[in-house]
Write a structure and sequence with these properties.
By secondary structure, this protein is of the alpha/beta class. It has helices at residues 7-17, 33-42, 60-68, 82-88, 107-115, 131-140, 154-161, 171-179, 219-231, 237-243, 251-261, 274-290, and strands spanning 29-30, 50-54, 71-76, 95-99, 120-125, 145-153, 180-188, 193-194, 201-208.
Length: 303
């Protein structure tokens, strides 16, 4: 079996199995060994780690991970790739391949069964079309995950680490920064993939917080508030909250809370820090409780 991560090795495997790329799965395979080695190195994988890899493809990065980690659990949604993975990973007894949709996998249960309940390290070249749902699923499941080193679209990576005042700052920025500390690891040009994507890629490491950096009475309400604040970016925060269905916040309540915080009534959501959103959520949640309303909408952290 050829060493993967090179164009020749990748083409040999694809031709052997007559594999056809599935656009619906967002398949782009890495063909630059230096990038793969950097990802594994920056993820700080060693023999004490159990790594959860999402979307192993033909097993390119899986081979590198298997040589460094104690165990690798690779979750692949495409059934056509399973016999290929059985072939390319046959020399690595510490790898288990699961044919499943990661969005339907109980990661907490998997950690309990395969890693004694200890935290996974997540390392993945994520499908770009479902990057955000996968990350939020992992965050919100509260499964034991120490950190995530993932390849994503560059634009998305930049949004994850942006702060107030930037046009790229939004609900995704706040959600990622509530659960983790983002760190850019590397930028990867399209030429490092087969087939070449139309966008640039970036590896970002998300260092998971043991405790979120801010306190909030109700996480679901906090993220409902954040989503409403960015739903219509041109509107002031007060108008955005008033118009949000299911939030239960009036214009007068929002204005009073902002005044209590020392913020102008015409402020926009993009100007608030995570700490300010947490305080605003606390004030509005307490007002809602005193008024006898639940004040919550479902969907913790959805962005």
């Amino acid at each position: 079996m050829p060493r993967l991560g090179t164009l020749s090795g990748t083409l040999e495997v694809l031709e052997k199995y007559q594999f056809r790329f599935q656009k619906k799965f967002g398949q782009n395979f890495l063909i630059e060994p230096g990038i793969i080695e950097k990802i594994v190195r920056e993820a700080e994988v060693d023999k004490t780690d159990c790594v959860l890899e999402i979307g192993p493809g033909i097993g390119t990065m899986t081979q590198y991970l298997a040589e460094k980690a104690g165990e690798v659990i690779a979750v692949e949604i495409d059934k056509a790739l399973i016999p290929i993975l059985e072939d390319t990973l046959c020399e690595y007894p510490n790898v288990t391949v699961l044919n499943a949709d990661i969005l339907k996998v109980d990661v907490g249960r998997l950690a309990k069964e395969r890693n004694g309940g200890k935290p996974f390290k997540v390392v993945a070249n994520l499908p770009y079309y479902i990057t955000t749902p996968i990350l939020m699923q992992l965050f919100e499941s509260h499964a034991p995950i120490s950190d995530m080193t993932v390849m994503v679209q560059t634009e998305v990576a930049m949004r994850m680490r942006e702060g107030p005042g930037s046009k790229d700052y939004g609900a995704l920025s706040l959600a990622v920064q509530y659960y983790s500390r983002p760190e850019i690891v590397a930028h990867v040009p399209p030429a490092c993939f087969l087939p070449r994507p139309n966008v640039g890629s970036t590896v970002i490491r998300l260092h998971r917080y043991e405790e979120p950096p801010v306190k909030t009475a109700d996480v679901a309400f906090l993220f409902s508030l954040i989503r409403a604040s960015f739903c219509q970016r041109r509107k002031t925060l007060v108008n955005g909250l008033q118009n949000a269905p299911g939030l239960g916040v009036s214009k007068e309540e929002a204005a009073a809370a902002l005044e209590q915080m020392g913020l102008p009534v015409n402020v926009r959501g993009e100007a608030l820090t995570l700490e300010q959103f947490a305080r605003l959520a606390g004030l509005l949640y307490e007002r809602s409780k005193r008024a006898g309303r639940d004040g919550r909408t479902r969907g913790e952290g959805q962005v």
